[in-house]
Design brief:
Strand content: 15-25%
Order of helices and strands: EHEHEHEHHEHEEHEHEH
Distance between the termini: 40 Å
Largest sheet: 7 strands, parallel
Number of strands: 9
Radius of gyration: 18 Å
Shape: globular
Strand order of the largest sheet: 3-2-1-4-5-6-9
Length: 262
């Protein structure tokens, strides 16, 4: 595996799950600097302590509200020209019937899964800045297979990830001729992290059983790391998940009818 010399990596939602593993894996490849962000600063400091010879900038932020998003953008302003890779990873899920979801949780999910990703992406799309960049900036937006494969119990989550899917694919077209920026849509399946514990243990949520289908987070992040060196518009994790497009198109109605059983 090549190293990340000359690169500055920004990762949101870096305190746990895919974000934490991604931060650790990137740190091992020795980038010039690593910027990691999350609500739990102590978790970010734990990552710092593992790599004392590396410049790691930990940013405490809450991207689930507009004030927190704006504050985060101010904090990364000094590094705007230096950042070469952005992983819009922050997000959360919730399982249960939509009418049981609180208004506060709905707003929180929209802000974190959609608004923060959108505003962070736009932050780097300044025309003058793009023209003056010495290095290309590569933005990875973490979506989900659930974005185009919706079933009951994940109404808001699948809807927010559907936005990420359409948003990133549209940006592919808008910036197709711009050589200074590249977008990658990441579509994971069920990854073995704390994500599912949070999704089913939140207020009003229901229990689910996905442990049989979970993919190791280390392997998932390995595909993301490869994406830094080999640009792809879409990364499926695991790669086999690309067949879900076909399955959803051909068998979508049947699978939706199994919703109560699943």
């Amino acid at each position: 595996m090549r190293n990340l010399k000359g690169k500055t990596i920004l990762i949101t939602g870096a305190s746990s799950g895919i974000g934490r593993q991604l931060a650790v894996s990137c740190a091992k490849l020795k980038p010039d600097s690593l910027i990691i962000a999350a609500r739990r600063l102590e978790k970010l400091k734990e990552i710092e302590s593992l790599f004392t010879d590396l410049q790691i900038i930990s940013i405490k932020c809450d991207l689930s509200n507009t004030e927190g998003i704006n504050d985060f953008l101010k904090q990364i302003e000094p590094y705007k020209r230096k950042i070469t890779h952005v992983f819009n990873n922050a997000g959360f899920g919730w399982y249960g019937y939509f009418n049981q979801m609180t208004d506060e949780k709905i707003v929180e999910m929209i802000n974190l899964n959609i608004l923060s990703l959108t505003k962070i992406t736009k932050f780097f799309l300044d025309d003058k800045l793009l023209q003056e960049r010495d290095n290309m900036i590569h933005i990875f937006n973490i979506g989900s297979i659930a974005g185009f494969f919706p079933v009951q119990g994940i109404v808001m989550y699948s809807s927010t990830k559907s936005f990420v899917d359409s948003f990133t694919r549209s940006l592919h077209s808008e910036y197709a001729k711009n050589k200074n920026i590249f977008f990658t849509l990441v579509l994971p399946g069920a990854i073995k992290t704390d994500f599912f514990n949070v999704a089913q243990n939140s207020k009003g949520a229901q229990k689910i059983r996905l442990n049989l289908f979970e993919y190791p987070v280390e392997k998932a992040v390995a595909y993301l790391i490869k994406g830094i060196f080999k640009k792809k518009k879409v990364i499926y994790i695991p790669p086999l998940m690309k067949i879900t497009n076909f399955i959803g198109f051909v068998f979508g109605r049947f699978i939706r009818s199994l919703g109560p059983i699943l």
